């Protein structure tokens, strides 16, 4: 008999078709984030859940999950929405979808970096509202990306793609990671044991680490102050990494020239106060949102389910 799987959000057509072929699926056609009560209720109906980062498996939810549920095969690389120790204590396997979204996410990080540096929001607004009535050599001058110094926080898969792409812009790349990478994975980037040495050499700082209790508020008043004057922050990782009030204070003082953000403390919606900043280029958490990547994420989640139900260890077991 086919295993029963709840697909908690509307995944790509190719993913849903493959899932329906191999499993008895229930799809959340409403495509809304599920409440704790909905998650708990569904856990009694199915053997597996395929959620996104919008479904929160807190310790409280984990304690209430029905013993029927055996695996949570996330359609996301980030798993800060899952309390892993609590789920493990319940004997529930958890997987994620690394690798397959690294290119797409690094593309968005580059888009944000270039857009914030070259004042894309101001320029686009001007063209749309008809206010472009002046040109001079000093008009709309921005920060040049080519040849600038890029600091990468978190040299995992996305960080490494960033380092490779940055070479195409002749950037001088520096990184901080918990451990130093093997030379062939560094892509010519310089390792920094701590943020204290990375931040002062980062004209652009791009965040690529997970949100954990240790990284929450990583960018705050003190760390922003360590960046060079005129630096630009890029965040495609998680909103929790940035103290948004401190970010706005650094923009207000002119210490930061701008920011490019795909992630916010409050999602969806973001921080309405940031909308007042024309030097902040913002996107609604779409780092991995390409057709190819969404299919790949869905297939990777299903590969993990297939392995689990075949009695093997899923490739992305956490
Ligand atoms: C991820 O996979 O973690 C992305 O943020 C999208 O959920």
TrEMBL record:
Protein name (database record): D-glycerate dehydrogenase
GO MF annotations in UniProt: glyoxylate reductase (NADPH) activity; hydroxypyruvate reductase [NAD(P)H] activity; NAD binding
Lineage top rank: taxon: Bacteria
SUPFAM superfamilies referenced in this protein's UniProt entry, alphabetically: Formate/glycerate dehydrogenase catalytic domain-like, NAD(P)-binding Rossmann-fold domains
Record organism: Algicella marina
Residue ranges constituting the D-isomer specific 2-hydroxyacid dehydrogenase catalytic domain according to the UniProt record: 14-315
Matching InterPro entries: D-isomer_2-hydroxyacid_DH, D-isomer_2_OHA_DH_cat_dom, D-isomer_DH_CS, D-isomer_DH_CS1, D-isomer_DH_NAD-bd, NAD(P)-bd_dom_sf
Entry keyword set: NAD, Oxidoreductase
CC annotations in GO: cytosol
Presence of keyword Oxidoreductase: yes
Signal peptide: none
Short name of any one Pfam family annotated for the protein: 2-Hacid_dh_C
CDD domains for this protein: GDH (cd05301)
Sequence ranges assigned to domain D-isomer specific 2-hydroxyacid dehydrogenase NAD-binding in this UniProt record: 111-287
Family according to the record: Belongs to the D-isomer specific 2-hydroxyacid dehydrogenase family.
């Amino acid at each position: 008999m086919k295993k029963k799987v709840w697909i908690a959000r509307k995944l790509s057509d190719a993913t849903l078709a493959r899932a329906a072929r191999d499993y008895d699926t229930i799809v959340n056609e409403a495509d809304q984030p599920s409440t704790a009560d909905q998650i708990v209720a569904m856990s009694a109906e199915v053997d597996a859940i395929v959620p996104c980062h919008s479904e929160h498996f807190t310790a409280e939810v984990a304690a209430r999950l029905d013993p029927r549920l055996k695996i949570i095969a996330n359609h996301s690389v980030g798993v800060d929405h899952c309390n892993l120790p609590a789920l493990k204590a319940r004997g529930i396997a958890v997987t994620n979808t690394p690798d397959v979204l690294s290119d797409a996410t690094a593309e968005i990080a580059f888009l944000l970096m270039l857009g914030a540096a070259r004042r894309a929001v101001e320029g686009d607004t001007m063209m749309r509202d008809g206010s472009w009535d002046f040109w001079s050599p000093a008009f709309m001058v921005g920060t040049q990306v080519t040849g600038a110094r890029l600091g990468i926080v978190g040299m995992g898969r996305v960080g490494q793609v960033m380092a490779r792409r940055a070479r195409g812009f002749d950037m001088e790349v520096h990184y901080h990671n918990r451990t130093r990478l093997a030379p062939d994975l560094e892509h010519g980037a310089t390792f920094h044991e701590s943020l204290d040495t990375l931040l002062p050499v980062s004209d652009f700082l791009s965040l690529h680490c997970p949100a954990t209790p240790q990284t929450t508020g990583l960018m705050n008043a003190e760390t922003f102050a360590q960046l060079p004057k005129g630096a630009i922050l890029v965040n495609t990782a998680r909103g929790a990494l940035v103290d948004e009030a401190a970010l706005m204070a650094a923009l207000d003082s002119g210490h930061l020239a701008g920011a490019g953000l795909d992630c916010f403390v409050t999602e969806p919606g973001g921080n309405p106060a940031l909308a007042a900043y024309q030097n902040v280029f913002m996107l609604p958490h779409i780092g991995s949102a390409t057709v190819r990547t969404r299919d790949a994420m869905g297939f990777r989640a299903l590969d993990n389910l297939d392995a689990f139900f075949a009695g093997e260890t899923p490739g992305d077991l956490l």
